[in-house]
Amino acid sequence: MSGPDTADHVSVHLTSCGHDDATAVFEALESAFPSGSKVRAVDTGAGAPTVWSTVVDARTRVAPGTTVPSPLGGAVTVDLFGAADPVRQVREELAAAFGVEDHGTVPGEHELETRLVLTAHPDHAPS
User: Fold this and answer.
1) What contacts 30, CB < 8 A, 6 or more positions away?
2) Higher confidence at residue 61 or residue 46?
3) Are strands 76-82 and 50-57 parallel, antiparallel or unpaired?
4) d(CA 78, CA 72)
5) pLDDT-derived band of residue 5, with 50, 70 and 90 as boundaries?
6) Cβ distance 73 to 66 under 8 Å?
7) Residue 8 gets which letter from DSSP?
8) Is 125 helix (H, G, I), strand (E, B) or coil?
9) Which of 35, 79, 93, 124 could form a disulfide with 57 if both were Cys (CB 3.0 to 4.6 A apart)?
10) What does R_g of the chain's alpha carbons equal in angstroms?
């Protein structure tokens, strides 16, 4: 686990997705938190999944809930690491852009880890 830089930063890790879905998630986060964070892709080895990661600065959040729903080609697993309030803010913005299933939260002494599975937002579901 790679922790956030400060109490206002949330480390975001995506797995179980390809480049296009990772791009959709990171574009949604960038529109909600325009901090210009770098996105990294880590190839974990032959046959293993790629992990996409970035750090979101919750202090840069624009008007809450204005994130536009984005299409996804499939489900994306997201792990959020950080202090409770910034993680909650990131989760809210992801929920504005995608369908969100909570898959558990593990509290720590100074931060928490939350696992989500993102799917296509109901407004973008195929008809």
Assistant:
1) 36, 37
2) 61
3) unpaired
4) 13
5) low
6) no
7) T
8) coil
9) 35
10) 14
How is the chain split among helix, strand and coil, in percent rounded to 5? 25, 35, 40
End-to-end CA distance of the chain: 39
| Distance (Å, whole) CA 64 – CA 34 | 13
User: Which residue, chain included where needed, has tokens 């008007």?
Assistant: 63
In 3D space, the residue among 40, 14, 38 whose CA is nearest the CA of residue 25 turns out to be: 14
**Amino acid letter for position 10:** V
Mean pLDDT throughout 25-42?
Answer: 83
Model confidence, pTM: 0.85
- Tokens 């995506």 — which residue? 14
Identify each DSSP E strand in the chain by its residue range: 9-15, 40-43, 50-57, 76-82, 99-107, 112-119
